Amino acid sequence: MKLEKGYLFVLEGIDGTGKSTQCGKLEDWFSEQGTPVLRLREPTDGVWGKKIRTLLTEGRKGVTREEELEWFINDRREDVEKNILPALKDKKVVILDRYYFSTAAYQGALGLDSSSILATNESFAPKPDRAFFFKVPPEECLRRIHSSRDTVSAFEKKDYLEKVQSLFDSFNDSFIRRIDGSQSEDEVQLDVRKEIIECMKEGAH
Ligand code: TYD
Asked: For a FRET experiment, which of 55, 119, 138, 146 has its CA 20 to 30 Å from that of 89?
């Protein structure tokens, strides 16, 4: 199906909410319909994204919160310029696993100012057509993470995830949709698809 414009759909939430699984299902759904789709994730696999992933697995090692924030923003600038804007211009659907709401929530939970993080990002990053905020209680997220992996990253501690969740809860924008991630995978996917169908009917931002 050829689209009149590009669409940016973002999936957000604390670790273990099931965003990545849902991104995969959405990508398949669009591909089956013959709709041009690009699935991306942040941190990316670019230079800055790689630095960030090393920091996540090996620990901060003297990198300050401010430097870390700068890395996330550099990574996003690159993603916006190289991947997101060109795909939107080509009238594709972009499915993005994490975006600047994660920076405002995760780096905000480290004590940095989440409103100014949002403002900085919105100065260069296009707003999404819809941002789905997945919500699952942090205890359940941690249980899911532990059952699927042996290692837990620095960002996956309960107190910290609770702070991150409360920041996600505090963000308000007309394009945000809150999704109950405790439902079955198929139910979650249906909720997201319903919103996407609605959004694409409206067409414009
Ligand atoms: P995640 O998508 O969970 O990666 P993986 O699929 O490899 O587990 O992202 C890695 C971590 O990065 C996650 O704990 C959230 C954190 N993060 C931030 O702190 N700030 C950001 O801006 C982004 C995009 C992610």
From this structure: 119
In the chain the domains, ranked by start, together with CATH numbers, are 7-204 (3.40.50.300)
Hey, CA dihedral for 182, 187, 193, 198, is it positive or negative? negative
Q: Closest ligand 1 atom to the C-alpha of 19? A: 2
Q: Which atom of ligand 1 is nearest to the CA of 42?
A: 24
Q: Any residues with CB less than 8 A from the CB of 109 and at least 6 apart, and which?
A: 160, 163, 164, 167
pTM higher than 0.90, yes or no?
A: yes
CA distance 35 to 29: 9
The protein residue whose alpha carbon is closest to atom 12 in ligand 1 is 43
